[in-house]
Amino acid sequence: MEDHAESFKKKSFLNLLKMPIAELEDYYRIKRHLDRNKEIRHIALRRAYSKIFISLLGMDRTLHKKKYIIIGDKRLQTNQAKVYACTHAGSTDISVVNEALKDHCYWFWGDIGEYYRKIDGLLVWFNGAVLLDTHDKQDRRNALNTAIKVLKKGGNILIFPEGSWNITENKPVMHLYTGAVEMAIKSGADIIPVGIEIYGNTFYINIGQNIRSRNMVTDSKQKFTEELRDAMATLKWEIWEQQGQSSRTALPNNISELWHEHILKMCDEVNFPIEEVYRTIYAYKPDLELKKVKKELASLVPCRENAFLFNKRNHD
Q1: Closest CA to 150 of 203, 104, 196
Q2: What is residue 290's predicted lDDT score, i.e. its pLDDT?
Q3: What is the pLDDT of residues 226-259, one digit of tens each?
Q4: What backbone torsions phi and psi does residue 211 show, to the nearest 5 degrees?
Q5: pLDDT band at 316, cuts 50/70/90?
Q6: What topology does CATH give the domain 42-243?
Q7: What separation in angstroms does the CA of 126 have from each of 50, 56, 119, 181, 232?
Q8: What whole-number distance in Å separates Cα of residue 190 and Cα of residue 212?
Q9: pLDDT computed for residue 64 by the predictor
Q10: What span, in angstroms and rounded, lies between the C-alpha atoms of 252 and 254?
């Protein structure tokens, strides 16, 4: 990135409009790198604008015939900046949960693409957003540092620590990236876990109690991230207890296929490839090792010496 930065030249607005999306993403990724040491400004102005922004989010939600229900809100009113750590249910949950929170938040937003071409991208920019290219390690680090600066200035961050939509069939919360906890520790912000689930056109939102970061240390960020995951899973489970009750016999035999079709439909609606969903899921090491073992097991030819590996009782 440093090599590209040396030859970087600012483009006019008209030139930016003519650039292909891929080149535009490269342009802004380099610009973010060059601007990484700049001071965060205009938070108070963005906070004032956010009241209009939240109203616009509500109008857009109503236009698309969606609604939300808050089943719980345990937030404590403090003067601390907040990291809203939300479960990720789909492409539109970021706007719905921001409206429901009724709080000004910078969006921690990756894979932006068309953001640079659409009016809603401009509206998000006015509200405040920490943008990043999830493919680029340096850009991810720059985004984390920018978020920390926002929090130190008293701004809030809205983030999905799972990194991707939860496309699993039965996990309340997937494994989390540590960024949400790290930015809270380094800024002194509170973490507010939020559970989100979607049934039809209704979003059910469960807001948890503040998790104070003052007793956390960066060296233990993985441990605290697991604790955050537990808190998020509990909030999601409480939604399931209220809204998701069903008997196993009531489920169709092809429920897995129907779920997969639902995920593909969501991807098609926002032109987001399913491969990108898988790519942005946190690579949890034990899961990777298990996949490797299963792959090797599938390639084995059964014989007397390895027959015990194929015993189903060993796979529980």
Answers
A1: 104
A2: 63
A3: 999 999 999 999 999 998 667 778 888 888 888 8
A4: -105, 115
A5: low
A6: Glycerol-3-phosphate (1)-acyltransferase (3.40.1130)
A7: 8, 13, 11, 26, 29
A8: 5
A9: 92
A10: 5
And the tokens for 289? 């090792």
> DSSP code of 3?
H
With a CB cutoff of 8 Å and minimum separation 6, the contacts of 219 are none
Confidence at residue 304, expressed as pLDDT on a 0 to 100 scale: 73
- pTM for this entry: 0.87
Q: Is 48 exposed, middle or buried (0-12, 13-18, 19+ CB in 10 A)?
A: exposed
Residues making up the chain, counted from first to last: 316
CB of 244 closer than 8 Å to CB of 97: no
Distances (CA, A) of 116 to 35, 120, 126, 154: 18, 9, 13, 27
Residue 292: the pLDDT is 67
Residue 236 and residue 26: Cα distance in Å, rounded?
37
Domain ranges of the chain: 1-35, 42-243, 285-316
